[in-house]
């Protein structure tokens, strides 16, 4: 058994997936509602809007849909903490962090991923800089910031 009932996955509309009475308009998440066994020709899914969908599988290309992370991991401030690390989960995590909490920075290990909000944010004030001074990058209670990366670089140069 490869995938089982209850797993969440991403369905990619860019692959031209069409249902009998609807078209998937964008990449969306779906829940697997029937166990998938090796050799099956399709997945039985329930989309976010509760629509049932049968997702055809390309057996020649051996391509399975990307799995979705558990809800507890969605919005994580370090992408390396995700169980499944691939393009759909990275983009989904960044989207959730930005839209739900207006967080423009996310770690990916020692790298810092930034989203341009196209507006001024009050995150570059002097008091914010002082909060990050002397702290370790990736500190559990500190949101990802460019100041943390700068502090880590300074500590590495000084040692």
In short:
InterPro entries: Kinesin_motor_dom_sf, Myosin_head_motor_dom-like, P-loop_NTPase. With 159 residues, the protein is an alpha+beta fold. The protein contains three helices and six strands.
Biggest sheet: strands, sense, closure? 4 strands, antiparallel
Order of helices and strands: EEEEHEEHH
Count of strand segments: 6
> Poorly predicted ranges (pLDDT <50, ≥5 residues)?
13-25
Terminal Cα span: 51 Å
**Mean pLDDT over the full residue set:** 77
Specify the structural class.
Answer: alpha+beta
- Beta-strand percentage range: 15-25%
Q: Tell me the domain tally.
A: 2
Number of helices: 3
Please supply descriptive tags for the structure shown above:
alpha+beta; microfilament motor activity; 3 helices; 6 strands; ATP-binding; 159 residues; elongated; Myosin motor domain-containing protein
Summarize the structure in words:
With 159 residues, this protein is of the alpha+beta class. It folds into two domains: 8-56; 71-158, no CATH class. Helix content is 22%, strand content 18%. The longest helix has 15 residues, at 87-101. It is elongated, with a radius of gyration of 20 Å.
């Amino acid at each position: 058994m490869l995938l089982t009932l209850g797993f969440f996955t991403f369905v990619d509309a860019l692959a031209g997936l069409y249902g009998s009475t609807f078209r998937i308009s964008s990449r969306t998440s779906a829940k697997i509602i029937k166990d998938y066994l090796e050799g099956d020709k399709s997945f039985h899914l329930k989309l976010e809007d509760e629509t049932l969908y049968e997702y055809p599988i390309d057996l020649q290309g051996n391509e399975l849909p990307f799995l979705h992370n558990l809800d507890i991991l969605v919005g994580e401030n370090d992408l390396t903490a995700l169980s499944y690390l691939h393009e759909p989960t990275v983009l989904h995590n960044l989207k959730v962090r930005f839209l739900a909490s207006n967080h423009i920075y996310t770690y990916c290990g020692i790298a810092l991923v930034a989203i341009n909000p196209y507006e001024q944010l009050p995150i570059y004030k002097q008091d914010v800089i002082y909060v990050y001074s002397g702290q370790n990058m990736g500190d559990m209670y500190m949101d990802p910031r460019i100041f943390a990366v700068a502090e880590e670089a300074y500590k590495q140069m000084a040692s």
